[in-house]
Amino acid sequence: MLNEVVSGELQPEQALVESELTEKYSVSRTPIREALKRLAVQGLVDIYPQVGSFVAPLRLTHFLDASFVRYHLELALVRQAAKNINEEYRIKLSHNIAMQKHLLTQGLVDRFYDVDEEFHLLIATIAGRPNVWHIIEQHKVHLDRVRHYALRFLRKTPLIVKQHESIAQGVSEGDEEKAVRAMREHLNSIHESLEKWLMEFNTST
Questions:
Q1: What is the model's pLDDT at position 125?
Q2: 2-55 in CATH: which number?
Q3: What ranges in 87-175 are assigned the alpha helix state H?
């Protein structure tokens, strides 16, 4: 259910009817209720006693918190990655960037999104802190929700590839400041575009 909320398959403020969910996922009501409670803790579902459960709207405060966590942790990760770089990781970075470019030319946006995530996990792995990326993933679900909606309209994919290439170059050269500068530009660009889109979206709904 988490993936359906993040991807937008389950729309903001959509009612989550237990009987429909038990049929959809082929489970009893107990695991459905537990799943709804977990999603409510994450701020992805709103539960109103005696009324029902609903997919949470795209809230600016949740987006800003997720962006804050990601920004500060990823800058630390990319700096450490530049310190740790070796030839094996240079090759892996090169392969990932090549795959991003290929998927871009083929118009395979969904697969590109997966390889984008793999790129950031690779940076964390090079830094020796892959678990930190998993911490970021847990917090950035609200950022990902907005991203899934906004990228349909913003068409930023070519710019993202260019920014990833700059990050990879800085890391591969072992240039900490260059890598941090490129990551900062990348994350700020994403944040500014998504925040602007979200504010316009919330104003229009």
A1: 98
A2: 1.10.10.10
A3: 87-106, 109-126, 130-139, 141-154, 157-172
